[in-house]
Amino acid sequence: MAAPKTAGTAAPVTTRAAIRRVMLAVFCLVPLAACQSSKPGPMAGGDDDAAWYIGTMPDKPFDVPLVDRSRIDPKYRRQEVAYSGPEAPGTIVVDIDKRQLALVQEGGTALQYGVGVGKAGFSWKGDARVGRKGVWPDWSPTTTMVSLNPGIERSRKGGVDNPLGARALYLYNGNRDTLFRIHGTNEPWSIGEQMSSGCVRMLNEDIVDLYERVPVGARVVVKRSGKYRA
Questions:
Q1: Buried-most residue among 29, 78, 133, 185 (CB within 10 A)?
Q2: Measuring CA to CA, which residue among 223, 229, 203, 230 is closest to residue 96?
Q3: Which residues contact 67 (CB under 8 A, 6 or more apart)?
């Protein structure tokens, strides 16, 4: 089994001022509704936003801002764990209640990542597959979002200010897009929280890592209360 990929080399201190300016600009933008939390976490706001970041990881067309993982609860940090579930290697298993995502490996182990999940009434559970993958994906609202909020922004190009983050895995049932995603986030304080509009969000460096490991067609099981079927 391949060892987990490293998140990249943190930028030197001399570049952190530039990162700080970029991230402060990001958080001054009006939040989007799709896969976006309704409000920042308790540590967000002003200078604290930029304090979450310690460097960047080279990527195209944008570098990935790297999060200070000391701010993340250890149970939500990327790690290899023992796994005894029935799912086959290569399956993504999302546990809504635990706020954790596991990529099942050979030999009774899994790569585990912390995630943020949908707030009450928005979380989805079920058995799906990765229908397609996106790099720095564009965002647009669903028709339901538009009907509930006619003034909502209708699209935003991919970038560090986009709520889908650096990568997205689009979940399908058969040939039907469920409209739920596993994606990055520019709100790292939301990892481990229940505050999105339904999608499963990961740190940007974690979704980049997962994206490289998972092919289109991979099975995705999203469980709530220990079940993914009604």
A1: 185
A2: 223
A3: 52, 53, 54, 188, 203, 204, 205
| Contact in structure between 152 and 33 (CB atoms under 8 Å) | yes
Rounded distance between C-alpha atoms, residue 164 and residue 161, angstroms: 9
User: What residues have CB less than 8 Å from 47, skipping those under 6 apart?
Assistant: 24
Reported as type and span, the H/E element at residue 172 is: strand 167-173
Is there a catalytic annotation at residue 183? yes
Q: Residue 208 corresponds to which tokens in the numbers above?
A: 């980049």
Given 3-state DSSP classes, what are the helix, strand and coil percentages for the chain, each rounded to the nearest 5?
20, 30, 50
pTM for the structure as a whole: 0.79
Catalytic residue among 199, 200, 203, 210: 199
Q: How far is it, in rounded angstroms, from Cα 118 to Cα 5?
A: 28
State the catalytic residue, choosing from 78, 167, 181, 183.
Answer: 183
The HSE-up count of residue 183 (CA atoms within 13 Å, CB side) is: 33
Residue type, 131: G
Q: Which domains does the chain have, with CATH numbers?
A: 13-223 (2.40.440.10)
Does residue 94 have an active-site annotation? Answer: no
